[in-house]
Design goal:
alpha+beta, Topoisomerase I, Chain A, domain 4, 5 domains, five-stranded mixed sheet, 11% strand, globular, magnesium, Telomerase_RBD, telomere, Telomerase_RT, metal-binding
């Protein structure tokens, strides 16, 4: 290479001396400050730009303000200039700038010039934006207060009369003092023209003080404009010192009122141009889920003879407008009943209330969507009859003329001819009866035959036989198999729905088959699972359906608008079939309920069978637990108080029934059937908040109460710490109170309740907590958000701000949560709260059928107060009768009514059994002897108490407790017997894979990593079970894997991860859907396994865990965790190779790649797992 081609250096080399003498370059701190990005799991879902307050004000300052940018960049941050130090005020301003987050969305507000003109007029001063402020802190304080008042006035000026701006600075203000204003402490006039302060707004006070005026002074002449834009356009959040990444919203539109950016963007794509304004509230089919809860707990329809009437109810539109042959004069005309039924099927085409474009009136229904069983009042208002009488004027849309009217008329005919009762008897016979009994029952007329028309029913012979005695060992045996229910519903659909609705030829067969599969899937869903409208239509061929084709356009290629119109009409038809035909069909023929032992599985009882087993149980309750109240007396009581009445239902429990009261249901306002009252639990919310406050202030008054299963470990750990090191022999004694809630004496409970509150008055306030459900960071539709309102009580003299309460008590265990409080605060007198609770306990009215009953013993089950009242009541029992257990050698645990005593004194355990089995009439307490259990031989009152075998672990509240080491593990035997399938709730509609991932990850913190496990080992890596250890305690929580004993040489000992079992059941549930998304299914599984590994390792090695538990050591590397998890997953999934081929191949590739790492000793890992004791494998 010649010298000409060699590049020459652009600068000469400097000597060492030159380098040392030359001053270092200054870094531009302003630009550096703006480079930092703020990432928050929740805020990124709602805001397009997130930055600190320091970054925000620097970006808003003009480029010419170099000195101010430099000052704001350096204030309260980093090293100070020589011979100077930051003052406390500067540090406070720096903390404000760095701990405050400003979030922005795309918005269209006032123009900059117009807003500034309004400010000039409001402040009554000239335009001084070009003048540097020179009046110091006092002037900045005044103008900051004026700016906040102006923002409140500006936001109110945008709203029409009677509306309230959805802005936190306007909370507590009103345009005029109306009737609700008297609820506040006072209604005061302030400096804001036309606006009244009803409740004090703490945010306004914070922005007027607390270093915000100093910030305004720092901003100089541009400060007013920047501050106004900040408060009007953007949202302001303050960092909460407690918890992890929690925030308090200080200003802006409440985040609970916003829609995620992805939702806003998708709506903008679907509804472009001018049509967006007209259809902005339209719901997409994927957002419309059927309200399956309507088919639960339905009452049977009875005829005049008091027998169950099968088929659709008499109020159904097909029964109210049956088919009538037209006379000769009416031939060729349009049948009015056909048009009326079409209004129920296609309400959107007639301009009626519909599920797609109409808002749900929350004052009339508490359900997600409106109930369209009866539309007569709406139709009468929409199409009024002429003044002179005659037929109503109804315009039939062009799309619904011709073929559609004939199909609807055919629907009337086929419904009239359908033999509902005979088809029910054929597909769903009474369980537990022989064929001869079924025939004799049908012949006797006990089951009403077919037709729902009154004329046909009159021809039937009166019944002469009653329901035969049913033979069963469990009430569940009397339920009709869900496959039979599905077959019955499909047969009815085929019989009643005209085939022409599905098209012709091959299209008809395809669409009909798709629809029946969706019906089958809908009936098989579990308790809280749902199906969306988009899922029903998926796979159907809509273009080839003739009745959807416009007149004279058959066979032609359809335009985009025509295709959308066809889908719109067909969606209405499908929604009607599920919401207004299938669900009423199930309601009118079956009592659908869950059981106490099968979690979310639903059982379908024929109404006649259910009445046969439920009526005796209900009669017993009316005699022993309730007393009848005359209707007029009950109505007088209801009108004199806010509390309404509750409803009672029965839950199958083995061979008996368990009464369940629904106190969360909102009842109709007396005298007005269009407005719903608050539920009983809502009205009792203030009392519940007061009891929670008293619990936190005086926890000793609750005795040995446990408030969750997770409290058991802490109590056992503290107990064993108090005993000291050494060997101890523990005696376990467990008793269960019989019908605790139903046997508590009401007078004793009310007397005890009066001694609980220690304040004469309480202040109650509400706040909402918004947080993502996803445990790991992410974005997109998979990150779901929950919004929960909470009521918090505090003493009337407690002057703490809401932010102080958050940091002291509310945010300790929260993560990525945004707190938003309400300015509305109400004072409650203790006497009023006690009177309300006394009426709730002593005058609990229950409506059964058309009669009212009063609960004469016990406290209301299902009440928001029931658990807390029970804890206080039995804590009083402990103080008066079990005081001898208040010693260091005894640990008494009680979860509601389940007592467990762990002691080293055998005599105390025997005395405990003696007192509890004797009973305490004053407390209405009797124990269930069959559920008592001990780990030593014992005879109480001549009866042997059940004894645990030597070496077995003691069961308590779903946990195993080792009788020697007090190690705690989760029970898995019951879950194995009942099947994990019944304990799942699978998302089938919008994001099934994302929700599966979330449900796998979410249980990790509370169930696996809540407590640090220590198994009496020194942390050696060859013992896998000692990888998670607490050097100070010998109590272990064995919940790392849900292991099962396995044979020699098998990896199944650790391969049975519980989340893999959940995944198998979920995969089986998703089989009808995954054929459309095979690649998505494999990706979701791979992503879920990788995320499970990442989250597990992060939690095991987190700094928080090491700080919380000194001596904690995690002696396993991430590669080892990944290898063990992947081999475990493969061992389970390989049994289902046909469904998991791609996932298994991916797992094999990953395990081979991990096995090649030098630091990974696979054989040692396998040996370590095999050394796990059998009792630690589940």
């Amino acid at each position: 290479m010649d010298a000409a081609s060699v590049p020459m250096p652009r600068k000469r080399n400097r000597s060492e001396g030159d380098r040392s003498s030359r001053p270092a370059k200054h870094v531009k701190r302003a630009n550096a400050a703006c480079d930092t990005t703020i990432g928050h799991t929740l805020l990124t879902q709602y805001y397009s730009e997130i930055q600190t307050l320091r970054q925000y004000v620097i970006s808003k300052l003009p480029a010419s303000s170099r000195l101010r940018r430099k000052k704001i960049t350096s204030v309260g941050r980093g090293a100070s200039p020589p011979n100077q130090s930051h003052t406390e005020e500067e540090r406070a301003i720096g903390e404000l700038l760095d701990s405050t987050i400003v979030a922005s969305r795309q918005h269209a507000g006032d123009t900059e010039g117009h807003r500034w003109e309004q400010w000039v007029r409001f402040s009554q001063k000239g335009d001084e934006s070009y003048v540097t402020r020179s009046d110091g802190l006092k002037g900045s304080t005044f103008w900051q207060s004026e700016i906040v008042d102006f923002v409140v006035w500006l936001l109110f000026s945008r709203e029409t009369a009677g509306t309230w701006p959805k802005h936190l600075l306007c909370d507590g203000f009103r345009k005029q003092a109306g009737p609700t204003a008297h609820a506040g402490p006072q209604t005061s006039r302030n400096n804001i023209p036309g606006v009244y302060s009803v409740y004090p707004n703490q945010r306004v006070q914070v922005l007027k003080g607390s270093h915000w005026p100093q910030l305004l002074m720092l901003l100089g002449k541009e400060g007013e404009r920047i501050m106004i834009d900040l408060l009007v356009d953007d949202a302001i959040f303050r960092a909460v010192k407690a918890g992890n990444d929690n925030l308090y919203q200080l200003s802006g539109t409440p985040i609970s009122e916003l829609e995620p950016l992805t939702t806003v963007a998708s709506k903008a794509e679907l509804l472009p141009s001018a049509a967006a304004s007209l259809r902005g509230t339209e719901l997409r089919p994927s957002e419309i889920s059927f309200v399956r809860s309507r088919m639960l707990y339905a009452r049977a329809a009875l005829n005049a003879r008091g027998l169950v009437h099968f088929g659709l109810r008499h109020i159904h539109v097909l029964n109210r407008f049956p088919y009538k042959p037209q006379s000769a004069n009416e031939a060729g005309g349009l049948d009015e009943s056909v048009v009326h039924i079409m209004m129920y099927i296609f309400p959107r085409q007639f301009g009626l209330h519909n599920v797609f474009t109409s808002a749900v009136n929350r004052q009339q229904t508490a359900q997600k969507l409106q109930d369209y069983t009866l539309r007569e009042e709406e139709i009468a208002n929409k199409f009024p009859a002429p003044d002179g009488g005659g037929k109503r004027i109804r315009h039939l849309p062009k799309r619904l003329r011709g073929t559609v009217t004939h199909l609807v008329q055919r629907l009337q005919v086929q419904h009239k001819r359908c033999a509902y009762a005979e088809m029910l008897q054929h597909y769903c016979p009474v369980p537990g009866q022989s064929g001869s009994k079924r025939k004799s029952q049908a012949a006797s007329g006990r089951v009403l035959p077919s037709s729902t028309s009154a004329k046909y029913r009159k021809k039937q012979k009166p019944p002469t036989a009653s329901m035969p005695d049913l033979q069963y060992t469990s009430l569940i045996e009397l339920a009709t198999p869900v496959s039979s229910v599905s077959a019955f519903c499909q047969a009815i659909m085929l019989k009643v729905i005209p085939s022409g609705f599905w098209g012709q030829g091959a299209t008809q067969a395809h669409n009909k088959a798709c629809f029946l599969k969706k019906v089958h899937h809908f009936i098989h869903l579990r308790r809280f699972e749902s199906m969306c409208l988009h899922e029903v239509k998926q796979g159907m061929k809509v273009h080839d359906i003739e009745w959807l084709t416009p007149p004279r356009l058959g066979g032609q290629k359809s335009s985009q608008s025509d295709t959308q119109k066809r889908s719109e009409i067909f969606y209405e038809f499908l929604y009607y079939l599920f919401d207004s035909f299938l669900i009423p069909l199930i309601r009118s023929n079956f009592y659908v309920t869950e059981s106490s032992a099968h979690r979310y599985q639903l059982f379908f009882f024929r109404h006649d069978v259910w009445r046969c087993v439920a009526e005796p149980a209900m009669a017993s309750l009316k005699t022993n637990m309730f007393e009848e109240v005359r209707v007029d007396g009950a109505l007088r009581i209801l009108q004199s108080r806010r509390l309404g009445f509750s409803r009672l239902r029965l839950l199958p429990k083995q061979t008996t029934m368990r009464p369940i009261m629904n106190l969360r249901r909102r009842t109709l306002l007396q005298g007005d059937k269009k407005v719903l009252c608050p539920s009983i639990n809502t009205i009792m919310g203030p009392v519940s908040a007061v009891l929670k406050l008293e619990k936190s202030l005086n926890p000793s008054s609750l005795g040995s109460s446990l408030f969750s299963v997770g409290d058991i470990y802490h109590r056992i750990k503290t107990f064993k710490d108090g005993l000291g090191k050494g060997e101890h022999e523990f005696y376990f004694a467990k008793v269960d109170v019989h019908a605790a809630f139903d046997t508590i004496p009401q007078d004793a409970m009310i007397d005890l309740l009066r001694r609980i509150p220690r304040q004469s008055r309480y202040r109650l306030s509400k706040h909402v907590e918004v947080k993502p459900l996803e445990t790991a960071s992410g974005s997109g539709p998979g990150v779901k958000v929950t919004k929960r309102w909470h009521t918090v009580a505090q003493a009337s003299g407690d002057a703490r701000t809401f932010l102080e309460k958050i940091e002291e008590s509310l945010a300790g265990n929260k993560k990525d949560t945004v707190f938003i409080d309400s300015a509305v605060q109400k004072m409650h007198d203790t006497r009023d709260l006690l009177a309300l609770t006394t009426a709730h306990i002593g005058q609990n009215l229950v409506r059964i059928g058309k009669k009212y009953y009063r609960q004469k013993c016990g406290i209301p089950q299902g009440s928001v107060l029931s658990s807390m009242l029970c804890n206080y009541f039995y804590a009083d029992l402990e103080r008066n009768h079990l005081g001898f257990l208040q010693a260091d050698d005894c640990l008494l645990l009680r979860l509601i009514d389940d007592f467990l005593l762990i002691t080293t004194d055998r005599e105390k355990a025997m005395l405990f059994f003696e007192i509890m089995h004797k009973g305490l009439p004053k407390y209405g307490m009797t124990v269930n002897p069959g559920k008592s259990l001990a780990n030593f031989s014992l005879t109480v009152r001549g009866m042997n108490v059940s004894r645990l075998d030597d070496g077995e672990r003691f069961p308590y509240c779903g946990l195993w407790i080792d009788c020697e080491s007090l190690a705690v593990a989760k029970q898995r035997d019951n879950a194995k017997d009942l099947g994990i399938f019944n304990s799942l709730t699978v998302e089938f509609s919008r994001c099934p894979g994302q929700n599966f991932k979330r449900k796998v990850i979410n249980p990790i913190p509370p169930h696996v990593f809540r407590h640090v496990a220590q198994l009496a080992q020194d942390g050696a890596r060859q013992h896998f079970h000692s990888l998670y250890r607490d050097s100070d305690q010998d109590v272990g929580v064995c919940a790392v894997y849900d292991n099962r004993p396995a044979g020699p040489g098998s990896l199944d000992g650790y391969a049975s991860s519980s989340f893999v079992s959940i995944g198998l059941s979920t995969r089986n549930c998703l089989l009808p859907i995954w054929p459309y998304h095979a690649n998505l299914f494999s990706r979701r599984w791979a992503d879920t396994i990788k995320m499970l590994i990442d989250v597990s390792f992060v939690l095991l090695t987190s700094r928080t865990r090491r700080e919380r538990h000194p001596g904690y050591v995690c002696a396993v590397r991430k590669g080892e965790v990944a290898w063990l998890a992947m081999v475990a997953c493969r061992q389970i999934l390989v049994r289902k190779q046909t469904g998991y081929r791609d996932v298994i191949l991916w797992l094999e590739d990953e395990t081979r790649r991990l096995s090649t790492q030098r630091s990974l000793d696979c054989e040692s890992l396998v040996r370590a797992v095999k050394t796990l004791p059998a009792h630690q494998r589940g």
